[in-house]
Amino acid sequence: MPLYKLLLVVYLFLKVHTLFGQNLNTFGLSNSSGIYAVLVNPALGIESINCLSINAIGAGINSESNNLRLLFNDPLVQNLTLKFYRDGYNLIEIPYAEYTGKKNSRIFVQGQALLPSILWNINPNISVFAYVRERAYGSAYTGSDMSRLYLHDKIDQKDSKRNFTLDRRDLQYNEMALGSSLVLHNKREMFLAFGYTVKKLSARKINFQKSNEISYVENDNTVTVNMDYQVVSTNSKVLTKDMIAHLLLQNAPGRGYGFDFGFVFELRPYHLRNTYSVNNPKGKNKSLQQREKTKYLFKAHLGINDIGRINFKGDNVIFDRHYESQARIKIDSLIGTQDAIKFFNNPSPTTLSTITSETNELDVFTSASLNIGCDFRLADRIFVHTLLTKGFQNSNSRYTPIVPFSISGLFRKEWNKFMLGIPYRIVPISQTYSFGFLAKAGPLFFGTDNLSSLFLSRVKNFSAYGGIVFNIRCHKSAHITECPPF
């Protein structure tokens, strides 16, 4: 395969399939992650064992649901060989997923691609970093009948109660970020650092659909649904008319700014901190510090990510519409995705919609979250990291995708140029309980939070991430010599 075709396939995979999700943060929990650590908490950049970290490319996808199963044509291990491209078929086909139960559906998707980026530890007390990241994430809560409407499934004729509830929120934007990590305290066995990130946000797309008041009347084989609902969307035809301008963000429908900040605390026993700890208890002799070694026995960090706002505006670019709609649905007919789109956006023979209000400007807040993590050294080169994430929601977040409460972590063993790990993830609201596999060899890393994603074509919680990052470790001081044991 020519190189340009291979690059095109990789680009399309990152561009299109980030709509399903991500989890690069799992890799950021390791000491070998370099610049990926600042995606979890910007303060983690200063305690890195690397003097320089240069990211070439990294991407991840992650989807979680309590009762939807993705329908890939092949398992991930076959897709990685580009079998779908050689044989001329798609990774996934409409309707993309199947409905597995009568419960209401909760869906959470995240996706991101970290583009060329750099982290530089200038000295033991200051580090700076810059990165560019593409992000796409969303959440949805759908009633059982609305789930079937979107998935080419038949409405259950035996169910006497209908549920057409819908709350769907999708947001896609670009981040250009600058940040720094600073040491606040580093004496005896205590280490404390602070970090921050300032981000310029350029929106690519928003899609918000929510039903407010729903009533229905069932007569023989037909359900008549009356609904007041709201649709917020960008006009893709206008934005993609000039594809180059769209890719370069010259015609972004919305712009804004974001902010991350965090703290990290480490317990550094003298025997891990430096060789001559007895003669250098306060760390004043800089030549006796070993920057190339992981020094902590225990690490804890706290941070708040994605505090930000994007202002969308422009005629024919963004619209916020409130509808009053009436739709007649045949229970025994096959309702497809196109009918679902018409149901919400365009009049059709079975749908009567009236626009009651419309605006062309609104502010959308990004999905801020609180991250609390701790990392333990269990033995030489063996660590276990646990991360708790809780999203913030308030009256200003009505268009913002929901970040569910989650517990994730990474059990790992690290060498100078290699790492093997077992990630795990728990999301109670989507009934996600999974573990996976993560490996790093030189600059390459690849992993999944759900091991079944590698070997099954029908996956309830899909996860995969990988990339190329070059880490240059700090050199051992020439003034330090190892003392032989007595």
Task: Give structural notes.
The chain is built from 10 helices and 23 strands. With 486 residues, it is mainly beta. It has one domain: Porin, CATH 2.40.160. The chain has a 20-stranded antiparallel beta sheet that branches. It has a 3-stranded antiparallel beta sheet with strand order 3-2-22. The chain is globular and about 80 Å long.
Summarize the structure.
The protein is built from 10 helices and 23 strands.
Could you estimate the helical fraction of the residues in percent?
A: 10-25%
Q: Please tell me the total number of domains.
A: 1
Rounded average pLDDT: 77
Structural class computed from helices and strand pairing: mainly beta
Cα shape? globular
CATH class: Mainly Beta
Low-confidence segments, given as residue ranges, are 1-22, 275-279, 334-350, 478-486
Separation, N- and C-terminal Cα atoms = 61 Å
CATH architecture: Beta Barrel
How large is the count of helical segments? Answer: 10
For the largest beta-sheet, the strand count, sense and barrel status come to: 20 strands, antiparallel
Query: What is the strand content?
Result: over 45%
User: How large is the radius of gyration?
Assistant: 25 Å
How many β-strand stretches? 23
What is the CATH topology?
Porin
